[in-house]
């Protein structure tokens, strides 16, 4: 039996060698995707986003506030405008993402205790930049209010601790666990890249089975495995499995070891997750091509499925916030379970028992082809490819 | 005169052939009709709730004082979070996160209230599960907002001022208003859907056209097409015309009807929308026709197109601001019509930008259209030379 599997695997290696699309989709494109995401977000967080200023007051006090705003990590004051209309149009032209507006007499009103208004307008069209700018604004407004009080208190002889306690009796001490720099690379690469890898793996599984029919080799394939569909499938997918497993382990080695992404779960959980992911994606691909023998249809289903998994895994917009039917539908995507296991066990280091249902789901995906092996064999022997 | 007439006829023939193809071929029907019609609805449904509300949080209240309870009450009342559990210690709270029953922990220290009474600074610790950014944002922002308003109350109580105005001035001598100009509730769907919609148009065009070219190549039509049909220019035009006609309908449906169905922000002016979508569709069509030259077998197109979807979304600068992208990737972004299509459409649709405001985008799209068109002509001539001797 091992010999038969070996023979089919050798035959498959021959196919992989002659068709460059295998090399492309199993190695080259996945590597490009890994490089793309990790290099695009290598800074971790967008910094120095362009912000405009409409300063109709133009006093040392307002200029000081502008300098403070400019010194924040996410914000960079780039342009000055005469009125708010010009500034608003600049946002529409994508030159700036936000602007701060000081009306005339801001400083005078502040000194006269008339509580002037300073306005900060920011665009939420992109909520990433919107959230970061909002955070800087909150800091600025706190500093601005506090600086006056602090000056008064220190003139009265209060110590720093007293000033802090008076101005901010309660403070929040924030602990972003495992991602203290709020690094977007860690947050997004860990979920988007595996989604792409799983997409390729399931597509390639469907492709390699469907092409047997398309190029009229299916009978020869079944024959090479002594008429045993189990041997045929194992042998056929073994080379792909080994290559994809290497790629996914290589990716994990790169992000966890080279880039140092947090992985409290340790090596064991990483290896297990990688293995289950490859098996589940292949199982899904085989399953689809077994129920839909037509190559173009099975591949369409796989691609449409994979395209949805980017959203339905719930990494960007959480699944709990979606409608109930969608929550149910999302369970039919291997990537959803991958993500839950990844974030609970690998990223946060909780024991695997917490996600046993998701582990079970991945195993079920891997075993999906088993009940329909017979059907797959019949398809291979009887189905005719219609161009 | 006759030549022109013949040319027009050949163009119409090519158009008719391709049109029949689209509706006869299962694969093309899926990518040209079904996906553009149903995928936008599906994605809109996924993101329809817009907001992340009531993120579950565990509170460990070691102080158990009236002040800590009022903090917890106010925190629970914030729209974005809910106090789902109260634990006696942080280890118990951690297991709740492991079981995915909560996303964050708020720890109030035992001396919380007594410190305030002693006029010292008191610290509340907030721990966030960082696996989903929106959860972190909700937990953290709600905590700072509640702390800020409690701070004001404490300050007012201490200041012993006489009038309300005195209190206002004491707590904030300068008022800083924050105004979210566009997408003012920060809705997730309003943010992501415009990009997704444009991307659906772009990707289905690439898939459909690639599929059509792959089929033609498999059936050996390319050899025929160069020799039998000498009017290659007419074929090019006819095909492009067919795609353009189908996609003007799809683009109208996707950019106008879909956001309307779901009540997403829609500030697009007709003139700007048309001025953007025409060059976008043309550039995408000619771009897709270039890519389709790479397709040997019809199914290969799915292998090389589908995975680009999310990278293209990132290249457009939606998730990661474009000015902060490494220069190399900014350059790569310029190759794809989707980049300018998304940038233009986001601003037209969410910010109500006029055609003048998106000038760089639509000019870039026209330049792409022209370049891609000529590349297509060169490729066709090369293909013709290549095929003739056979």
Short overview:
The complex is a heterodimer of chains A (387) and B (390). In chain A, 66% of the residues lie in helices and 8% in strands. In chain A, strands 2-1-3-4 form a 4-stranded mixed β-sheet, with helices on both faces.
Describe this structure in words.
The complex is a heterodimer of chains A (387) and B (390). Chain A is an alpha/beta fold. Helix content of chain A is 66%, strand content 8%. Chain A is built from 16 helices and five strands. Chain A has a four-stranded mixed β-sheet, sandwiched between helices. The model of chain A has no long low-confidence stretch (mean pLDDT 90). The model of chain B has no long low-confidence stretch (mean pLDDT 88). In chain B, strands 2-1-3-4 form a four-stranded mixed β-sheet, sandwiched between helices. Chain B is α/β, with parallel strands linked by helices and 390 residues long. The radius of gyration of chain B is 29 Å and the shape is elongated. In chain B, helix 3 (66-77) links the parallel strand 1 (55-61) and strand 2. The interface between A and B is large, with 122 and 112 residues.
């Amino acid at each position: 039996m091992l010999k038969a599997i070996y023979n089919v695997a050798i035959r498959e290696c021959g196919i992989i060698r002659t068709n460059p699309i295998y090399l492309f989709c199993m190695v080259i494109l996945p590597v490009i995707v890994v490089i793309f995401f990790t290099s695009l977000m290598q800074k971790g967080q967008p910094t120095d986003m362009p912000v405009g200023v409409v300063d109709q007051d133009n006093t040392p006090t307002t200029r000081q506030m502008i300098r403070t705003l400019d010194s924040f990590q996410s914000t960079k004051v780039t342009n000055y405008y005469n009125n708010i209309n010009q500034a608003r149009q600049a946002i529409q032209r994508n030159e700036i993402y936000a602007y701060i507006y000081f009306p005339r007499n801001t400083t005078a009103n502040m000194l006269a205790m008339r509580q002037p208004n300073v306005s900060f307008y920011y665009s939420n069209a992109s909520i990433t930049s919107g959230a970061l700018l909002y955070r800087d604004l909150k800091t600025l407004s706190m500093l601005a209010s506090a600086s006056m009080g602090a000056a008064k208190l220190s003139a009265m002889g209060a110590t720093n601790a007293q000033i802090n306690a008076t101005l901010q009796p309660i403070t929040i001490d924030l602990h972003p666990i495992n991602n203290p720099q709020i690094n977007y690379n860690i947050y997004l690469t860990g979920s988007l890249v595996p989604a792409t890898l799983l997409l390729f793996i399931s597509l390639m599984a469907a492709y390699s089975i469907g092409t047997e029919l398309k190029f009229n080799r299916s009978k020869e394939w079944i024959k090479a495995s002594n008429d045993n569909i189990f041997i045929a499938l194992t042998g056929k997918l073994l080379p792909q499995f080994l290559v994809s497993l290497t790629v996914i382990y290589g990716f994990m080695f790169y992000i966890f070891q080279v880039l140092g992404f947090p992985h409290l779960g340790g090596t064991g959980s990483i290896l297990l997750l990688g293995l289950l992911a490859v098996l589940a994606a292949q199982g899904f691909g085989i399953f689809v091509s077994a129920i839909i023998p037509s190559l173009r249809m099975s591949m369409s289903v796989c691609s449409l499925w994979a395209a949805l998994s980017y959203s339905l895994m719930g990494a960007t917009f959480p699944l709990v916030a979606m409608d109930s039917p969608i929550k149910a539908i999302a369970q039919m995507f291997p990537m959803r379970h991958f993500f839950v296991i990844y974030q609970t066990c690998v990223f946060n280091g909780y024991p695997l028992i917490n996600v046993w249902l998701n582990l079970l789901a991945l195993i079920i995906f891997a075993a999906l082809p088993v009940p329909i092996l017979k059907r797959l064999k019949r398809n291979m022997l009887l189905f005719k490819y219609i161009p | 005169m006759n030549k022109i007439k013949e040319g027009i006829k050949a163009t119409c023939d090519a158009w008719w052939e391709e049109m029949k193809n689209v509706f006869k071929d299962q694969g093309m029907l899926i990518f040209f009709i079904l996906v553009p019609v149903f995928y936008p609805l599906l994605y809109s449904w996924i993101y329809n709730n817009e907001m992340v509300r009531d993120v579950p949080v565990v509170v460990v209240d070691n102080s158990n004082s009236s002040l800590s309870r009022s903090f917890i009450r106010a925190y629970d009342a914030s729209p974005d979070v809910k106090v789902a559990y109260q634990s006696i210690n942080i280890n118990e709270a951690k297991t709740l996160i492991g079981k995915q029953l909560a996303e964050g922990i708020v720890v109030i220290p035992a001396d919380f209230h007594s410190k305030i009474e002693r006029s010292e600074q008191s610290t509340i610790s907030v721990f966030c599960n960082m696996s989903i950014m929106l959860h972190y944002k909700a937990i953290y922002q709600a905590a700072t907002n509640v702390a800020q308003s409690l701070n004001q109350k404490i300050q007012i109580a201490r200041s012993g001022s006489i009038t309300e105005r005195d209190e206002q001035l004491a707590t904030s001598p300068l008022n800083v208003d924050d105004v979210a100009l566009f997408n003012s509730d920060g809705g997730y769907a309003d943010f992501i859907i415009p990009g997704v919609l444009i991307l659906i148009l772009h990707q289905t065009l690439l898939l459909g056209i690639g599929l059509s070219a792959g089929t033609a190549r498999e059936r050996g039509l390319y050899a025929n097409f160069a020799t039998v049909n000498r009017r290659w220019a007419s074929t090019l035009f006819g095909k492009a015309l067919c795609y353009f006609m189908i996609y003007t309908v799809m683009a109208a449906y996707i950019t106008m009807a879909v956001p309307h169905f779901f009540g997403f922000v829609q500030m697009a002016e007709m003139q700007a929308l048309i001025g953007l979508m025409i060059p976008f569709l043309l550039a995408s069509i000619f771009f897709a026709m270039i890519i389709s030259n790479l397709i040997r077998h019809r199914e290969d197109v799915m292998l090389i197109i589908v995975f680009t979807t999310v990278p293209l979304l990132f290249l457009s600068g939606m998730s990661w601001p474009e000015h902060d992208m490494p220069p190399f990737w900014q350059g790569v972004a310029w190759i794809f019509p989707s980049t300018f299509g998304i940038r233009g459409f986001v601003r037209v649709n969410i910010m109500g930008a006029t055609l003048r405001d998106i000038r760089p985008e639509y000019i870039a799209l026209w330049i792409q259209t022209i370049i891609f068109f000529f590349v297509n002509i060169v490729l066709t001539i090369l293909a013709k030379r290549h095929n003739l001797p056979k």
